[in-house]
Amino acid sequence: MDEEAVTRDELKARLLRPLERELADGAHDRVVAGGLEKLLENLGQPFPEVGRVLAGYRQMEVEVRKARLEEAIQLLGGKSLAQGPGDKGQSPQNPAPSPSPLHLDTPLEALNLGPGSKKKLAELGLRAVRDLLHHYPRRYEDRRTLQGVREVEDGAKATLVGKVLSRELVKTPRKGLQLVQVRFMDAWGWKFTGVWFNQPWVLKQMPEGASLVLSGRVQKRGGLVSLLVEYFEDEGGESLSTGRIVPVYPAKEGIGQAFLRRAVWRALEALGEMPDPLQPYRNQVAPARLPLGEALRQAHFPDSEARLEQALERLKFDEFLLLELKVMIQSGGSALLGRMFRVTPEMVERFRTALPFTLTGAQERVLGEILADMQSERQMARLVQGDVGSGKTAVAAAALYIAAQNGAQGALMAPTEILAKQHFDNLTRYLYPLGVSLDLLVGSMSASEKRAVQERLKSGQTQVVVGTHALIQDGVAFHDLGLAVIDEEHRFGVLQRRRLLGQRPDVLVMSATPIPRSLALTLYGDLEVSQIDELPPGRTPVQTKILTQKTRTQAYAFARQEIQKGHQVFVVTPMIEEGESEATAELAAATRLREELERLLPDVRIDLLHGRMKPDEKDAVMERFKQRAFDLLVSTTVIEVGVDIPQATLMIIENAERFGLAQLHQLRGRVGRGGLESYCILIAGETSKRTLQRLRVIEASTDGFYIAEQDLKLRGPGELRGLRQSGMPDLRLGDLASDQQIIEESRALAKAILEADPYLNHPEHALLKRELQARAEAIGFREVI
Q1: Angle between the N-to-C axes of helices 345-354 and 392-405, in degrees from 0 to 180, rounded to the nearest 10
Q2: Average pLDDT over residues 443-460
Q3: How open is the CA angle 364-368-370, to the nearest 5 degrees?
């Protein structure tokens, strides 16, 4: 058969397939993006009789369309639906729903994708239909109207479809370059050459007669057209790689895109009508959101950019909803009844009047949220986050006072002794004048001191106790624990926290690590989130400056000046050497820096704090620093959160680019605690444009929440310090930096669902429960209470 005849047959087949799909889909003109008439403009040119039959298709009634389609299909030599089922594979733009025994948990081998397919899919971690459908494309290519060769421009990028006519490997004398040259012909009979440099393996993937999709840069020389190919794929049996918005999947070598498209297509086709776990909540899931089945179809084979966006929004909603449900169910906090505290305006006013300062607007707002929780019958579970010095302890003191006024006990648990003592001093200042009895319980106390405190706790004589892990050791029993305040709770193990919370007190969690609200809602799914986003008046912001290695000595000259004024200095170094264990490397880096500074500042008293020290050794160093036994502390990042060193006015951070922005901001918060003018110097070891852009966020802003938002945008949740370890999920579609609205909506629905059915035992939640179980491994979570 001559080439021209082959081309005409091929064109006929290309036009026939979408016409058959359109008829099978009910003639709704949705099989081809842009409509059937758009397709006829391109592929219908060689068949004017078909063009005449289908002219004005968009305006026709559905029944007229069906009759015209039947006629056009017969003109092209195909079988219409009226002729009964034939061999032609039905391949609608979106697979037509059909009743089927397949479901989401069906193993993928049931799809009969051919020999070796099970192994290929297993390499990508795909074993069941559900896995495959949630293996989302990483990007999309718009191939709705692919150009012919005669339309491409020299130097432009183009995607072409061509049939292999011939191929050869050419070795050039210059530098032994190997060129693969393949002659192709497009659907209109125009020829072009695909060119690959030094990729001889390509030849094996170019059997003559194969139809390929190729992307690359165009070169025109005279009448000859070449394509310097950057990417190519076999068009595959079904036309899933052209004439549409085409998905490009994450894959491994040897697993082709055409194979993955076909697998997903078959799965969607075999599933047919897909039950939607959120059907009972359609009105609450924003009625505009797509049903699950349609969302999955559009996410893989979108009709348009708008439909793709709608699909991804629905799938993101599901991802966050399942995450929130998992955290809430795991914590059991969704439906726990706590105790109802009586709160009167007089109690609150008495507390306010006794304070040596006025609460800020942000403190008042957060206190209002806490008191509303305490008055409700549900157990309070609230996270209060705010910068160092924003006044979290004063708000916690108010809650502890209300608990005491109701005859209940309160406990505040801190991760270290020095922090516990600091909280004890502050709470004593706020609560003792109001007649509240307080005690401290820490590990370094003698056995008889501990016993005395334990007896006062058990009898109810002590109303508020502040302590470390000592609060949850054997022998500690409360008379009636009504409120537990946990500071920097990520520092405690789950079981440790649960021992304190066995009596179901109201729970207030405090954190000095501002994290974006979207991240807090996801990471602390079972906690309501309050933010103290305002510093008390009179606190002078810490002035921040970036220096490079060239100007580094200026930082230490300035340190000497501050020490001569009687002030103290922190110098922080990150882990530098790789290949050693983390602790060893940290110690080596810190020790080297201390020795260097002793040579540079011979008249300055210097000490060292590092990660290999035991907790009580760290406490002892910080206590000595607080007592001004030395002037400059060289430390790795183990400086305890929240410890006040009132005379510390300068923080120098070496290799600042190795820290996250939120971490730098927190380290900066170690100085300026005593009302003195304070400074932070960031020494950049590496000075690329991107690094300096990141560090300038810290230089320009002292707002911890703004900085945390920027950190999230610049680095993503996976890299934010400490979140990996706390089980932050790898979200497949959701983006914590930009999806706050979806997170808020999904969280509200999760709460509503669990209020009605705490463990998803109702029949209407069976699908949702199954989905939660099946995707549990993919949905990481952290336990809080």
Answers
A1: 130
A2: 93
A3: 115
Residues 612-635: what's their mean pLDDT?
89
* Alpha-carbon dihedral angle through residues 106, 111, 115, 120, given to the nearest 10 degrees: -60
Rg (the chain; Cα; Å): 34
Which residues, other chains included, contact 177 with Cβ-Cβ below 8 Å and sequence gap of 6+? 171, 197, 198
Q: Which residues pair with 164 in a beta bridge?
A: 184
Given pLDDT bands bounded at 50, 70 and 90, which one contains residue 715? low
Q: Exposed, middle or buried by CB within 10 Å (0-12, 13-18, 19+), for 667?
A: buried
pLDDT for position 541: 83
3-state helix, strand, coil in the chain (%, to 5): 45, 15, 40
Residue environment code for 527-563, b if the CB has 16+ CB neighbours within 10 A, otherwise e: bbbbbbbbbbeeeeebebebbeeeeeeebbebbeebb
**Rounded distance, CA 321 to CA 285, Å?**
10
Q: Would strands 245-248 and 139-142 be described as parallel, antiparallel, or unpaired?
A: antiparallel
DSSP secondary structure, 440-470, as one string: EE-TTS-HHHHHHHHHHHHHT--SEEEESGG
Residue given tokens 């000592």 in the structure block: 470
Q: Does residue 327 contact residue 314 with C-beta atoms inside 8 Å?
A: no
How far apart are alpha carbons 304 and 30 in whole angstroms? 10
Q: CA torsion sign, 510 to 514 to 515 to 521?
A: positive
The two structure tokens encoding residue 437: 């009895």
What angle separates helix 740-756 from helix 305-331, to the nearest 10 degrees?
50
Q: Can you say whether residue 504 is alpha, beta or left, with left for phi > 0 and alpha for psi between -120 and 50 degrees?
A: left
Give the alpha-carbon dihedral of 91, 94, 95, 97, to 10 degrees.
Answer: -140
Per residue, what are the HEC states of 148-161? CHHHCCCCCEEEEE
Residue 475: count of CB within 10 angstroms of its CB: 10
8-state DSSP, 764: G
Is the pLDDT confidence value at 775 over 90? Answer: no
* pLDDT score at 235: 61
- For the record, the structure tokens of 331 come out as 């914590």
pLDDT in tens, 342-388: 999 999 999 999 998 999 999 999 999 999 999 988 788 888 988 87
Evaluate whether 190 touches 150 at the Cβ level (below 8 Å): yes
Which H or E element spans position 140? strand 139-142
Return the minimum-mean-pLDDT range out of 253-262, 532-541, 582-591.
582-591
* Beta carbons within 10 angstroms of residue 438's beta carbon: 19
Give the chain's length. 785
Spatial separation of the C-alpha atoms in residues 313 and 739, rounded to whole Å: 9
How far is Cα 630 from Cα 675, in angstroms, rounded to an integer?
20
Work out the average pLDDT over 91-107: 60
Residues 6+ apart with CB under 8 A from 388: 512, 641, 642, 666, 669, 670, 673
Q: Which domains does the chain have, with CATH numbers?
A: 3-83 (no CATH), 108-137+268-323 (no CATH), 139-248 (2.40.50.140), 345-532 (3.40.50.300), 543-701 (3.40.50.300)
Residue 565's SS3 state is coil
Alpha helices in 245-344 (DSSP H): 257-271, 292-300, 305-331
**Cα(262)–Cα(260) distance, integer angstroms:** 5
Using alpha carbons only, what angle is made at residue 375 by residues 369 and 378, rounded to the nearest 5 degrees?
90
Asked whether the CA dihedral 476, 482, 487, 491 is positive or negative, the reply is positive
- Calpha distance 54→100 (Å, rounded): 34
Instruction: Tell me how far CA of residue 522 lies from CA of 48, 282, 734, in angstroms.
Output: 58, 23, 11
